[in-house]
Amino acid sequence: MRTWTGRLCLVVAAITFAGCAGRVPLRGLELVPPADASYFVADPGGATGVAGEGKVIWPYVVRLTKDMPVYRLWAGPAVLDADGRTSRIGQWWTFDPPAGTLASFRRRYEVCEKWDTLRWVAQCTLRRGSVVVIGPGQSVSEQTCEKPGESYPPNGRNFQLYIHDAWKRTGQSDSELSCPDVSRDYQNDPRDISKPY
Q1: Whole-angstrom distance, CA of residue 118 vs CA of residue 99
Q2: In angstroms, rounded to a whole number, what is the distance separating the alpha carbons of residues 8 and 26?
């Protein structure tokens, strides 16, 4: 089992490498040690998954030192859950602007089709001081996806962003997660999710 110090070295190397590649911003993030009172508020345990079930492999708790844009793909305003809510404000986000095909996004972030259609794009702002979890994506098995042939390997290149209880952290002018009106979102083109359909 790796120690936190060993994992710290790993994440610094990963963030530095990924930041150079434009995957995870190095500037604007600082690691939060387990002794910090806000560490467990970020819920690193809730962000961590076992092989085959998704989430992240290793959770790294970070604090934003500046406001940063974050992105979420979701099912759209017409799709409601049993409580009458959309999937627009959920716990899984990315620092990466949408790019590539919808299928490549699913592979990069290990998202089963049954979890979300991912046809709409929301861009919000995560405020300075927010404490969240980032980490490399865990694998997702065919059994978890419940679709023959659909599975995803772990991915250490594209860090996922976990905002614990995101829906409780938005809605007010001083909220940690500031989102524009849903009318600013767009339905993506599955061939190029950076563009409206």
Answers
A1: 13
A2: 14
